[in-house]
Amino acid sequence: MGRTLQxxxxxxxxxxxxxxxxxxxxxxxEELEEIEEDAGLGNGGLGRLAACFLxxxxxxxxxxxxxxxxxxxGIFNQKIRDGWQVExxxxxxxxxxxxxxxxxxxxxPVHFYGRVEHSAxxxxxxxxxxxxxxPYDTPVxxxxxNTVNTMRLWSARAPNDFNLRDFNVGDYIQAVxxxxxxxxISRVLYPNDNFxxxxxxxxxxxxFVVAATLQDIIRxxxxxxxxxxxxxxxxxxxxPDQVAIQLNxxxxxxxxxxxxxxxxxxxxxxxxxAWDITKRTFAxxxxxxxxxxxxxxxxxxxxxLLPRHLQIIYEINQRHLDHxxxxxxxxxxxxxxxxxxxxxxxxxxxxxxxCIVGSHAxxxxxxxxxxxxxTQVFEDFAALEPEKFQNKTNGITPRRxxxxxxxxxxxxxxxxIGEDYVRDLSQLTKLHExxxxxxxxxEVAKVKQENKVKFALYLExxxxxxxxxxxxxxxHVKRIHEYKRQLMNCLHIITMYNRIRRxxxxxxxxxxxxxxxxxxxxxHMAKMIxxxxxxxxxxxxxxxxxxxxxxxxxxxxYRVSLAEKVIPAxxxxxxxxxxxxxxxxxxxxxxxxxxxxxxxxxxGANVEMxxxxxxxxxxxxxxxxxxVTELDRKGYNAQLYYDRLPELxxxxxxxxxxxxxxxxxxxxxxxxxxxxxxxxxxxxADYEAYVKCQEKVSELYLNSKAWTKMVIRNxxxxxxxxxxxxxxxxxxxxxxxxPSDLKIPPPNEPRxxxxxxxxxxxxx
Length: 764
Description:
CATH class of the largest domain: Alpha Beta
Largest sheet: 6 strands, parallel
Subunit structure: Homodimer; enzymatically active. Interacts with PPP1R3B; recruits the phosphatase PP1 which dephosphorylates and inactivates PYGL/glycogen phosphorylase.
Region (Disordered): 738-764
GO molecular function: glycogen phosphorylase activity; pyridoxal phosphate binding
Radius of gyration: 27 Å
CATH topology of the largest domain: Rossmann fold
Mean pLDDT: 95
Family: Belongs to the glycogen phosphorylase family.
Number of helices: 31
Pfam families: Phosphorylase (PF00343)
Helix content: 40-55%
């Protein structure tokens, strides 16, 4: 979520008033804002997407709730020591959190372990361990529409009789100390991005958020006029018309068997009725195609922790496979491929398959990704129910990612096209009229230059490196992962360095290359990549032959509040994943909106950015998905590229020989060995095209006016990538609710004043 103060002032229309009031007190608002901790309760794009979605849902007047876990420790703070990543606990609640309100009156029990008893009256899950879920509510204000939604985060609490009710007579002290075991559930965020780690505590977290949330939703449904009780028992027929639940990846997939358990075991609905309601309630968003990221929980772990849920999953699977078998008799291989249970070795539950079978809609997050989902990853399911599969291209909130972080540019745009674009970003197309306006071109360039000077000052203060603010700011910030190919950027840096040294007199367009992002603590290769970048920076930044022509900076502890500083100062945005691996990306959109040009592959949302702006207004290079597929068919041989390309060979040899690690010449052996022998993401295959494309970038940068005109064309084409547009599509195509652009009357106005503005129909 990042910081809340400035975002709240902007959405409430109070920023200028607050700035002025604080100034009158002899204080500086910006200094005050810097004191607030980031709420870092997610990993990479997935968590940030949820935050943008909350802002858009409130701005569109949807009655929506964001549910999650109130981690005591969020994503770790990253320190760089001697070039290595070191993790520190993110004690973000140390000074309290003024934005949250504990709601103990809504506390709910969550059960674990135990056993299942079957009887004539149905299944009973008994002898369980209970953990309490305590909700904390954080307000989510819409933009200037007097709407405030709720983000409800659950915290784990031990019940007061924890470990004291049974045979634990003597050791009262130990029993109280053991309360920590229950409360550990919400202690810490697992720091993996695009990687599945099948740990028991993680499964507990996933079920914890699901069980608490579903009880909360059902309580609210029963309290509403729709949950009409028919002779004590609630009628749930209207449930899917009143409730829509969107599964953000498979992490909350246990919601599907949990809702079935509630309907069948507790509310005593017949299975078929319960299943129909469940399917119509859930929709699933897939966020990755990397096989190592897909959740596959061992059956024996689920059996121990959630025995009833395993039984329900088996029943769902049996009915699912019976249906497949009736359509495709004797096709045992299809049954194996489509089963929710994977046999062979340890039996596992494929959570993505569970989500597809238990949802009425499945979507990818960019056109190209949704096609890959349909034709490759889940092709059997898409063949069966093609109408279930959709695309919803991701977006970003223009409130945080333009108004808040780049007020200079936001104001400049408003001067030209008015202020309405903030709620309707498609209006940015009006900027096309000003592409040839010399004054506007100069003003856009001036805003960018001011942002760069400000960020350069920040860098000099934090990193003690002298930055040339007129150099090209070439920025690559995102989680560190092999598929995102920070290594390819690194090879390009080394190539530029070698060219400067080979011919110091030759004209070289000065660059400041900024790379930042966190590596999962257990991801060895990602940590080696960080060390390599820092080792290269050490050499480049201290070579007098290079001087101010090339500087390399690794940005420590990349997070939302740092993104808000670096993105508005960026000239060149690096979006260079291997085609077919980045589901969408959202950083790409933030840079586009903030006046950076993109160098990128035809992957994720880059494809649609090129479609919107015209491919000639992005620096597109490298293999397309088809080329990658073809190369896989032929067999990728890294050695071929190394032998054919002298500059690649020189760069790799320098890494291999210890040029960048003279005290430890074989420090980067693992990296080099990976690049030659098991590089799934084919860095060498795109190296040549990448370097050539970077030469075109430098050439255009020399012509400031032509560069800025291309920037304006990009900003003018960024309207599609507002999360407001994304959420409108979810609302219409999946949730079946109508967004309302109406401003509800403020609380100080009499209630009936805005009555004529209130739309007919019921809120969802």
